[in-house]
Amino acid sequence: MIAKTPGESRTIMTDMVLPSETNPLNNLFGGELLARMDRAASIAARRHSRRITVTASVNHVAFNQAVPVGSVVTVDARVSRAFRTSMEVYIDVWIEDRFTGAKTKANDAIYTFVAVDDSGKPTEVPAISPESELEQERFEGALRRKQLSLVLAGKMKPNDATELRALFTAES
Ligand SMILES: CC(C)(COP(=O)(O)OP(=O)(O)OC[C@H]1O[C@@H](n2cnc3c(N)ncnc32)[C@H](O)[C@@H]1OP(=O)(O)O)[C@@H](O)C(=O)NCCC(=O)NCCS
Questions:
Q1: What percent of the chain has pLDDT over 70?
Q2: How far is the CA of 114 from the centre of ligand 1 (A)?
Q3: Domains of the chain, with CATH numbers?
Q4: Residue 142 Cα distances to 30, 93, 115, 156, angstroms
Q5: Which residues, judged by CB distance below 6 Å to any ligand atom, belong to the binding site of ligand 1?
Q6: Does pLDDT of 171 surpass 70?
Q7: What is the pLDDT of residues 151-160, one digit of tens each?
Q8: CA torsion sign, 107 to 61 to 69 to 66?
Q9: How many CB atoms are located within 10 Å of the residue 50 CB?
């Protein structure tokens, strides 16, 4: 399989925040943002693998900034690394200033998707060739994030998480 770039899977979804999607403080409800990110990330994983993809785990979410009702929100997802059948998808969330149009980073998240065949069995995906410095940085961190996720899910023994352990044992 020929390797692909993160740019080939990039998926950008822009939408506004309606009153029915907010919490009692009139800010975007967290679960609504999770769903928007899941949708964009799912399309990115599908673009990379050209397969059916399922969400295997949500590895990280940071709700750094509240998103007020009426905001224009852009969810920007791309595959940051592909393993054998799984893909890490990095999602950046931006909000647009109503008057200037300037975009501010509000949140980010990292999801893991698995490509499956018609019977739901995991199937191989193409590798990733990062291009930009940021893509390279995200690519390099992806293996330890995968190991952390597997350890937390009880699917990997901490002792086998070599890349993750190296973080704590490296000499400063
Ligand atoms: C995701 C799913 C396909 C994995 O199936 P499985 O039998 O555990 O398959 P495997 O053990 O072969 O794992 C497949 C890949 O997923 C990865 N994976 C599984 N669980 C993971 C987790 N919690 N975090 C990170 N990666 C994970 C494995 O490391 C493996 O990756 P690799 O092939 O790239 O090395 C299966 O659990 C499933 O179908 N889950 C439901 C998905 C779903 O319905 N999502 C929507 C939620 S409503």
A1: 98
A2: 6
A3: 6-131 (3.10.129.10)
A4: 24, 19, 17, 16
A5: 54-57, 83-86, 112, 114, 116, 120, 122, 146, 149-150, 153, 155
A6: no
A7: 999 999 999 9
A8: negative
A9: 11
For residue 172, the model assigns a pLDDT of 58
pLDDT digits (tens, 9 = 90+) for 24-57: 999 999 999 999 999 999 999 999 999 999 999 9
From residue 68, give the alpha-carbon distance in Å to each of 21, 29, 75, 98: 10, 10, 15, 11
Per-residue pLDDT, averaged over 124-128, amounts to 98
- Distance, in Å, from the CA atom of 17 to the CA atom of 65, rounded to the nearest integer, reads 14
Q: Which protein residue's CA is at the shortest distance from atom 1 of ligand 1?
A: 56
Candidate of 53, 81, 86 to mutate for ligand 1, largest count of ligand atoms within 8 Å of Cβ = 86
**Cα 21 from Cα 149, distance rounded (Å):** 29
